[in-house]
């Protein structure tokens, strides 16, 4: 104990008379090395977070919401005030090719769902905007019903909503489902736009000959010259567990046509793949 007190006393005296060696100011190389160490620690933290169940999507979530709101603000559109825990916002352009009208699509989905977007080639834009946990059969899919013009959603009957959703689920043919039924329709108003929130069920007929009961919630609206549907569904056995997730997806659905301007992809341009339009 006496030795320790003597050592502390000596250090204090040395400090008082500036007798301790000076700590060198970090050089540029030292700062770079420190940065590399911080990057390594950050990378390790993200890796460990993944091991303990915290996804990188969740860690970056705040930044994603801010980015989406910046883009919405640039278009003069309402921003997203909040997102439920475990969900991520999605904002994506549909119709960047010459063969489709351009729409801006927004909805929220569980953060661990995989997002699929349309793709473009020399034949035009193909595919749609979709998010899902595909192995379990949980999906939220965007569909455009062309050729029907703009509809006043609040004036439509139950048969209209049934037709819109049946069109959405039968893109591969009318023989892929049976026993379709609309359970309930509820109208919701967002800004000046009306959406029909529809509970539905049907039986999916698979190519292997199986019949799979499915339940879902869809949101139907009409912007521009078409009717748009976001239909969110899962297998009936999982519906009780996932219905609130599906409802959040459907209720958060927004689509915009007016004022959404993009430079359409020029398919005659050999470099069109690296010139895809971005959200402005």
TrEMBL record:
Residues 1-16 form the signal peptide. SUPFAM superfamilies: Mog1p/PsbP-like (SSF55724). Transmembrane segments: none annotated. GO terms for cellular component: extrinsic component of membrane; photosystem II. GO terms for biological process: photosynthesis. Keywords: Signal. Residues 106-255 form the PsbP C-terminal domain. GO terms for molecular function: calcium ion binding. InterPro entries: Mog1/PsbP_a/b/a-sand, PsbP_C. This is PsbP C-terminal domain-containing protein. It comes from Triparma laevis f. longispina.
